[in-house]
């Protein structure tokens, strides 16, 4: 198998599912240094909603290949195909022989010819990116986070371009999208739909420029990107250019090896290459009956046919092409499209609805009593019904409007139970209704279990409601509530409250003790170690038993690991206030240890990036400042404005209150990171309204306390918990809120999820009115936790283990922190 992407890996999965492990010795060649990952999720990574090492993006980790007897050569591009000797030669000069060859080389980003795009040797120029790989995504993130005020231009306003723009905008960049056609997503939407989408994209703060053709990437004397130029002589400034002007099948290897190539590698209905007996192609590189497919669902169908054919499970298996139905999520907006975009003949019926304010656009096109096209944007609940009507499986209703809306007196034409078994429910992972029903009939009793076994809903997430409907219908009322949904960790069948009670009752102070006493069979679960270590520190404070293997690297060395294996150090500056002496020490340390990047953070702190692991104890010693806790799941910082000290609008001493809060709660272990801010007046210069806990002075000694705010990948204004009459009351209420959050929230559940889940009225009843009598206990346990504070950087003189600060070598060459 040449190609370890989604098509190649899915084909191997289908072969293995049909007994292929006993039939074949399977070798896969991939030019990226990873297991198989979900490219659809790269937009989530760019937006900060997922990580490249997260289970949401990694489909097949390295262990999967070993467990299934698959030989995997990663980071080694196939460069030569010899069909007569039946060998494939890799970039490393490795030669791999084959009896059956499957080419799944996918597609590459199409880069139009324009000045300044490439280096003289043909490589893509500095500051220019595609959007196809983890490397592309990480490169954009690195440049986006390298300094404040980075601007980006995305060339191409299709699905991928808008996802790139949305992700970069979420990272705080100024972003413009340039699209040469007259409206956005012209492949899926008509002009009116494009106008509605444009209004939605512009509302996100993204500039949109249509009917504009880019002619050059502009650079300064040092070769850095400064902007892009257009055919009309105008230009846009930019520090980064992302090209998403389409994709082209990756056919260079196939063409050089003598395979028949037109737009793609020509294949028949068994995915066999033309005039070949033992060479096949699958995925975006394959051309079938003159068609190329760039969507996931057709690739999954091809993989099944090829697996059926190669294993002999169904010798009659044949691929006859895929219908042009698409279900997407664009910049947070659901889109479903099938068939034609609008009327093409005089007799075509056309029903259209649009609302630019809400971003909703819908249309259907009917010809000769048959649905030949439909588009839904913003509201896609009718997509399953439209798909069935489009494919001729459900009769077209007489009232065409009922295809777009639920009308009084008009029943649903098809429910989840009525959908045919081969209906594709999850496009991202190729899961049909039949797959979901079979999973339920095989014994899966909860929605979580079904999703885990089938991967349904694990991609863009737009199918989750339909997945739930199908599973509920298949279970016929016998769908069990998922008890594991409330467990704190998967391996221990207890809620967080039950687990805390058991830990206290049995005096369990080490993670290994918790596993031995409470986990099923006493088995350890690696994924449960970090949340259990956090919980033990919450329950016992400094009296927990510190087992180094239960901690993430950040918590073991008290610094934040970076992508190149170095660490960032953030000394504490309470309330963002510092002194000339502290600044001198920071500058001296940066010089002494050749720190590549010194950066002022959004939380009013100074970050030293690029510190080697072995230098950490010496850096902390020379700084002689407490830890700023920028690395852990803990209370991080309290951001402040200057308040009444200097500001002529200040209504309260925000600086003193911010320092008091940070002194009180410094280093507290929490389920997820916790950020605070204090504003000296409602002008909100310290952004207190969008913090986990924010405090705003409103005059006459009164302070408003807001909770559950967010300003990262998720944007949420905090809820007003209470208005109190003194700074002391703020500290007291903040302690109660934080302690209740520590004891009640799930692992990694930020307050912006926890507060809505618990409910503001419930929090007010518990923490303000004390209706259940828990306040005294919260105050007591918070006081105990605060009294147990110890600066972790003191470990520099007494390491917890010999390897704690030993040099660490990365397994792969990684990008270096740039020297600024």
TrEMBL record:
Recorded hits in SUPFAM superfamilies, A to Z, give: FAD/NAD(P)-binding domain, Nitrite and sulphite reductase 4Fe-4S domain-like, Nitrite/Sulfite reductase N-terminal domain-like
Could you say which EC number(s) this protein's record lists? 1.8.7.1
Gene3D superfamilies per UniProt: 3.30.390.30, 3.90.480.20, BFD-like [2Fe-2S]-binding domain, FAD/NAD(P)-binding domain, Sulfite Reductase Hemoprotein, domain 1
Is this entry keyworded Metal-binding? yes
Q: Which UniProt keywords apply?
A: 2Fe-2S, 4Fe-4S, FAD, Flavoprotein, Heme, Iron, Iron-sulfur, Metal-binding, Nitrate assimilation, Oxidoreductase, Thioether bond
Q: Which reaction does it catalyse?
A: hydrogen sulfide + 6 oxidized [2Fe-2S]-[ferredoxin] + 3 H2O = sulfite + 6 reduced [2Fe-2S]-[ferredoxin] + 7 H(+)
Ranges for domain BFD-like [2Fe-2S]-binding: 425-472
* Domain spans labelled NADH-rubredoxin oxidoreductase C-terminal: 326-388
Residues of the Nitrite/Sulfite reductase ferredoxin-like domain: 561-624
| Any coiled-coil regions, as ranges | none
In this chain the Nitrite/sulphite reductase 4Fe-4S domain maps to: 632-767
Cofactor entry:
siroheme; [2Fe-2S] cluster; FAD; [4Fe-4S] cluster
| Pfam families xrefs | Fer2_BFD, NIR_SIR, NIR_SIR_ferr, Pyr_redox_2, Rubredoxin_C
Pathway(s) where this gene product acts: Nitrogen metabolism; nitrate reduction (assimilation)
Domain called FAD/NAD(P)-binding: residue spans? 2-292
What function does the entry list? Answer: Catalyzes the reduction of sulfite to sulfide, a step in the biosynthesis of sulfur-containing amino acids and cofactors.
Provide the family line. Answer: Belongs to the nitrite and sulfite reductase 4Fe-4S domain family.
NCBIfam families in the record = nitri_red_nirB (TIGR02374)
Among PANTHER family, the record links this protein to: NITRITE REDUCTASE (NADH) LARGE SUBUNIT
* Name by which UniProt lists this protein: assimilatory sulfite reductase (ferredoxin)
């Amino acid at each position: 198998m040449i190609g370890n992407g989604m098509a190649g890996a899915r084909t191997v999965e289908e072969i293995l599912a049909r007994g292929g492990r006993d039939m074949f010795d399977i070798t896969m060649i991939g030019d990226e240094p990873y297991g198989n990952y979900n490219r659809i999720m790269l937009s989530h990574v760019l937006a900060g909603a997922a990580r490249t090492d997260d289970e949401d993006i990694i489909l097949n980790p390295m262990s999967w290949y070993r467990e299934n007897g698959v030989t995997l050569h990663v980071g080694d591009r196939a460069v030569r195909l010899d069909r007569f000797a039946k060998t494939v030669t890799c970039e490393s000069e490795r030669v791999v022989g084959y009896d059956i060859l499957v080419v799944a080389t996918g597609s590459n980003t199409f880069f139009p010819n324009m000045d300044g795009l490439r280096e003289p040797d043909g490589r893509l120029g500095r500051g220019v990116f595609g959007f196809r790989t983890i490397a592309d995504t990480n490169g954009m993130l690195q440049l986006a986070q390298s300094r404040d005020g980075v601007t980006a231009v995305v060339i191409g306003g299709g699905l991928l371009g808008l996802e790139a723009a949305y992700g970069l905008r979420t990272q705080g960049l100024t972003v413009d999208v340039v699209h040469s056609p007259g409206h956005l997503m012209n492949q899926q939407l008509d002009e009116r739909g494009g106008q509605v989408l444009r209004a939605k994209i512009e509302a996100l703060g993204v500039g949109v420029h249509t009917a504009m053709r880019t002619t050059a990437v502009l650079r300064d004397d040092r070769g850095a990107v400064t902007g892009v130029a257009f055919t009309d002589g105008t230009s846009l400034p930019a520090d980064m250019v992302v090209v998403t002007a389409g994709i082209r099948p990756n056919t260079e290897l196939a063409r050089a090896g003598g395979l028949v190539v037109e737009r793609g590698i020509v294949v028949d209905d068994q995915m066999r290459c033309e005039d070949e007996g033992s060479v096949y192609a699958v995925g975006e590189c394959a051309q079938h009956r003159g068609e190329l497919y760039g969507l996931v669902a057709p690739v999954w169908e091809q993989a099944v046919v090829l697996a059926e054919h190669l294993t002999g499970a169904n010798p009659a298996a044949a691929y006859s092409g895929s219908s042009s139905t698409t279900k997407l999520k664009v910049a947070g907006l659901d889109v479903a499209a099938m068939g034609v975009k609008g009327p093409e003949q005089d007799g075509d019926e056309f029903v259209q609805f649009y609302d630019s304010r809400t971003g909703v656009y819908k249309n259907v096109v009917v010809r000769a009593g048959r649905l030949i096209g439909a588009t839904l944007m913003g509201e896609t609940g009718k997509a399953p019904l439209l798909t069935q009507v489009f494919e001729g499986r459900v009769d077209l209703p007489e009232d065409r409007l009922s295809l777009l809306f639920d009308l009084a007196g008009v029943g649903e034409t098809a429910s989840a139970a009525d959908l045919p078994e081969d209906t594709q429910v999850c496009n991202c992972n190729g899961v049909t209704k039949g797959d979901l029903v079979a999973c339920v009939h095989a014994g899966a009793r909860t929605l979580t279990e079904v999703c885990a076994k089938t991967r349904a809903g694990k991609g863009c997430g737009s199918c989750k409601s339909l997945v739930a409907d199908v599973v509920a219908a298949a279970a016929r009322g016998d769908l069990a509530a998922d008890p594991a949904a409330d467990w704190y960790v998967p391996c221990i069948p207890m809620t967080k409250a039950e687990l805390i009670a058991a830990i206290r009752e049995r005096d369990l102070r080490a993670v290994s003790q918790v596993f031995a006493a409470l986990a099923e069979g006493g088995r350890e679960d690696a994924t449960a170690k970090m949340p259990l270590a956090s919980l033990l520190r919450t329950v016992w404070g400094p009296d927990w038993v510190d087992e180094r293997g239960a901690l993430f690297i950040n918590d073991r060395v008290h610094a934040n690991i970076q992508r190149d294996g170095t660490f960032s150090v953030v000394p504490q500056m309470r309330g963002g206030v510092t002194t000339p002496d502290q600044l001198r020490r920071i500058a001296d340390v940066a010089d002494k240890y050749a720190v590549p990047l010194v950066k002022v953070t959004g939380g009013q702190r100074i970050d030293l990036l690029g510190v080697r692991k072995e230098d950490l104890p010496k850096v902390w010693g020379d700084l002689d400042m407490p830890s700023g806790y920028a690395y852990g799941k803990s209370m991080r910082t309290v951001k402040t404005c200057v308040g009444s000290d200097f500001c002529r609008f200040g209504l309260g001493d925000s600086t003193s209150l911010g320092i008091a809060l940070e002194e009180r709660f410094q280093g507290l272990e929490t389920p997820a990171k916790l950020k605070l801010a204090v504003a000296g007046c409602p002008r909100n210069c310290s952004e207190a309204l969008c913090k986990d806990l924010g405090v705003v002075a409103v005059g006459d000694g009164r302070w408003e306390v807001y909770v559950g705010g967010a300003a990262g990948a998720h944007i949420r204004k905090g809820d007003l918990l209470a208005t109190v009459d003194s700074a002391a009351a703020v500290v007291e209420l903040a302690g109660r809120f934080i302690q209740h959050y520590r004891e009640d929230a799930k692992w990694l559940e930020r307050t912006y999820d926890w507060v809505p889940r618990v409910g503001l009225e419930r929090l007010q009843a518990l923490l303000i009115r004390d209706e259940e009598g828990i306040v005294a206990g919260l105050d007591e346990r918070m006081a105990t936790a605060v009294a147990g504070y110890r600066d972790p950087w003191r470990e520099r003189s007494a390491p917890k283990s010999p390897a704690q600060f030993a040099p660490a070598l990365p397994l792969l060459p990684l990008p270096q922190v740039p020297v600024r």
